[in-house]
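Quick one, tokens below:
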């Protein structure tokens, strides 16, 4: 009986957790001066949300920021550091900033979707380091986002190396929560049965 419950619970959890077709992955980061390397005392804060569509090979970048000590000069994604959530890396996306990003301001927001199938969506040295192929560059960037080795960075005239940044991390998909809840439910049934 216990084995049947365990098998049924595992099958249910697996069925609920299976994505129909994983097409989008969302990454987020809180941007601040203490996350810079070296860290700084900037009071500025920001957020970055990056949405990758793996089927269409697009990347939507949404950023908002305020309180910068100087005017913006650049904004882009760096990839890939050698250790997750720390270190420095070269710029992966267009230089000096995403097309249409507000420059010469201390607060603002930006929302744009890039076609990652085209070379102009990458910094030329990043593209070259990936065999000159947009497909390879995209795969490297997504791997960096998945592993915590890519970060969003906003540069200003006072902080040319970056005033605020944050490492991008994936948001768990609903399927992950379903699997967790299913496992917890199964565990509670097993514990209850043992007490009886």
């Amino acid at each position: 009986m216990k084995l049947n419950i365990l098998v049924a619970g595992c099958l249910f959890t697996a069925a609920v957790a299976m994505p129909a077709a994983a097409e989008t992955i969302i990454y987020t980061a809180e941007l601040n001066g203490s996350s810079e390397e070296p860290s700084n005392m900037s009071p500025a804060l920001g957020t970055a949300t990056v949405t990758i569509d793996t089927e269409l090979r697009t990347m939507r970048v949404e950023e908002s920021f305020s309180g910068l000590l100087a005017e913006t000069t650049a904004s882009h994604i760096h990839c890939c550091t050698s250790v997750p959530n720390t270190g420095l890396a070269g710029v992966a996306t267009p230089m000096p900033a995403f097309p249409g990003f507000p420059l010469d301001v201390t607060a603002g927001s930006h929302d744009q979707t890039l076609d990652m199938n085209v070379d102009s969506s990458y910094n030329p040295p990043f593209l070259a380091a990936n065999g000159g192929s947009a497909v390879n560059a995209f795969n490297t960037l997504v791997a960096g986002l998945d592993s915590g080795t890519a970060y969003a960075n906003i540069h200003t005239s006072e902080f040319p190396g970056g005033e605020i940044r944050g490492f991008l991390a994936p948001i768990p998909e609903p399927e992950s929560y379903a699997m967790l809840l299913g496992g917890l439910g199964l565990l509670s049934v097993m514990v209850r049965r043992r007490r009886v």
